[in-house]
Write a structure and sequence with these properties.
The longest helix has 19 residues. The protein has a seven-stranded mixed sheet with strand order 4-10-9-8-7-5-6, sandwiched between helices. The protein starts with 17 loop residues before the first strand and ends with a helix. It is globular and about 65 Å long. Strand 1 and strand 2 form a beta hairpin. Helix 2 packs antiparallel against helix 9 and helix 3 packs parallel to helix 9. By secondary structure, it is of the alpha/beta class.
C-alpha cells in the first residue's frame, strides 16, 4: 500500500477500503462483497447497519452525546446493572474507552489493593507467556511477549511472566498481588487454557487472598456462547475486563470488580468513559445479544461454525495441523512452511476476511449474529482460497 503523507505508518494495511456493510457482509468501493470473519477484530458483534443500532445512535445524538462523569449518567447506571446481571457476578463497573484502559484500571486497582489490604505491600502481577493486554506502557509491560517491549523502556516494575498456569502458581511469592489471565490467548495463538488448571489457580489465589484478574476484552460479550467465558470455566474472579463487542463499534471499555471498597474519589477516572452515547448503544447491543442467545440461535450457529473448521482440519491435513479456541473465537494452525500472509491476501481476493494470530494461525472472529448461510458462503470462499494455494 502507498505511504500516506498524513498518517503515521503504524499499520501494515491491506490495500482495500470498505464503504458500507449489511449484517456480516462488507462492500468495497467497487461494490464487491466480502464475508466478514474478522468483525473489526472482534468488535462488530452485530455486524453492520443493524437497524436497531442505527436508530438508537440517531435518537441519542439528537438528545445528548456527552456530559462527563461530573454528573449522573442514567444510561451508564442501566448499562452497569445489565453487565453485572449478565455476568452473574456480584461486582461494580468502571467505564472507559478501550480494552487497554480497562486493563490499566485493573492494574491500578490491584496495586491499591496490594498496598492497603496487607501488612507488607504486594504489587507483582503474573501474566502468561504470549498474552496480550494492551499497548499503553503498563499494559504493554503486562503483555508477556518480549519482542513487543523493544524501544519503550523504562517500564513500571512488577510484571512477571510465567510459561503456563502451573508455572504461575509456582511463581507466587510474598510480593505477588495477583495473576492476570486471558482464558483464550487472542494475539498469542488462540490457545485456550485448561479449565482444571485455571480452577486450581483460582483456589490457590483465594487461599492467599490474592486476585484473579481475567482479561475478557476479546473473549467476552457472547463470543464464547456465554456472556463471559469465565462462566464456562466456572470461576469467580475478583476483576474482569471487557471492551471490544460491548457496543458493536462505538468505543467503550469496562473494568468490573468485586473489590467495591478499594478505589475512592479521585483514584481513577475517564473523561469520555461511559458517556451517554456509548452506554445507550451498549444497552441496546446487550439487549439484542441476550435475546439472540436465549433463542438458541447463537449456540446452533457456533456448533455449525465449529463443524466447518473441523472439516478443514480433516480434509486438508497437508495444510492444517489442528484447530484452536472456542465458540466464535477460533483458529486454524497452519504448517510452518505455508505463508500465513499469502492465505490472508488470497482470501481477500476471494471475498472473505480473516485474521492472523501469532506466526502460523488463521484467526476467525465473526460477528456474533452471523447467519448459517453467511458462514456457509464464507467457508466456501475460504476453501476456494485453500485450493488456489
Amino acid at each position: 500500500m502507498e505511504k500516506n503523507d498524513y498518517i503515521l505508518p503504524l499499520y501494515n494495511r491491506l490495500d482495500i477500503s470498505f464503504i458500507k456493510g449489511k449484517k456480516s457482509i462488507l462492500y468495497d468501493e467497487n461494490g464487491k462483497d466480502y464475508i466478514d470473519f474478522a468483525s473489526g477484530v472482534g468488535v462488530n458483534s452485530l455486524g453492520y447497519a443493524n437497524k436497531k443500532i442505527v436508530k438508537t445512535i440517531k435518537e441519542q445524538t439528537k438528545k445528548v452525546v456527552h456530559t462527563s462523569n461530573i454528573y449522573r449518567i442514567k444510561s451508564q447506571e442501566k448499562c452497569a446493572k445489565k453487565i453485572v446481571e449478565l455476568s452473574t457476578y456480584n461486582m461494580q463497573c468502571f467505564f472507559c474507552n478501550s480494552g487497554a484502559e480497562a486493563n490499566e484500571s485493573a492494574i491500578k486497582l490491584a496495586r491499591k489493593y496490594g498496598n492497603t489490604a496487607f501488612e507488607t505491600p504486594k504489587y507483582k502481577i503474573i501474566t502468561i507467556k504470549n498474552s496480550f493486554h494492551g499497548r499503553t506502557i503498563a499494559t504493554l509491560k503486562a503483555t508477556a511477549q518480549e519482542d513487543k517491549h523493544k524501544y519503550f523502556a523504562p517500564y513500571p516494575d512488577g510484571f512477571i511472566y510465567a510459561n503456563d498456569i502451573n508455572d504461575a502458581i509456582s511463581m507466587i511469592d510474598d510480593t505477588t498481588v495477583g495473576v492476570m489471565l486471558e482464558l483464550i490467548l487472542g494475539e498469542g495463538g488462540i490457545f485456550m487454557q485448561d479449565i482444571l488448571e485455571v480452577q486450581k489457580l483460582e483456589k490457590v489465589l483465594k487461599e492467599k487472598k490474592l486476585l484473579l484478574i481475567i482479561d475478557e476484552v476479546q473473549t467476552g460479550v457472547y463470543r464464547s456462547g456465554n456472556f463471559l467465558i469465565s462462566q464456562y470455566f466456572g470461576i469467580n474472579p475478583e476483576i474482569v475486563t471487557l471492551a471490544k463487542g460491548l457496543a458493536s463499534g462505538i468505543p467503550i471499555g469496562v473494568m468490573m470488580t468485586s473489590l467495591k471498597d478499594i478505589f475512592s474519589f479521585g483514584d481513577h477516572g475517564s473523561t469520555f468513559g461511559g458517556n451517554h452515547l456509548s452506554t445507550t448503544v451498549c444497552n441496546k447491543v446487550l439487549d439484542i445479544l441476550e435475546k439472540y442467545s436465549n433463542s438458541g440461535k447463537l449456540s446452533e450457529n457456533i456448533k455449525y461454525f465449529n463443524s466447518c473448521l473441523q472439516y478443514f482440519v480433516e480434509t486438508y491435513p497437508n495444510i492444517f495441523l489442528q484447530k484452536n479456541g472456542f465458540g466464535f473465537m477460533q483458529g486454524l494452525v497452519i504448517k510452518d512452511e505455508i505463508d500465513l500472509n499469502d492465505i490472508i491476501n488470497l482470501a481477500l481476493k476471494n471475498g472473505v476476511l480473516i485474521l492472523k494470530s501469532g506466526k502460523n494461525i488463521i484467526r476467525f472472529l465473526p460477528p456474533i449474529i452471523i447467519s448459517k448461510s453467511e458462514i456457509t458462503q464464507g467457508f466456501q470462499r475460504f476453501e476456494d482460497t485453500i485450493l488456489s494455494l
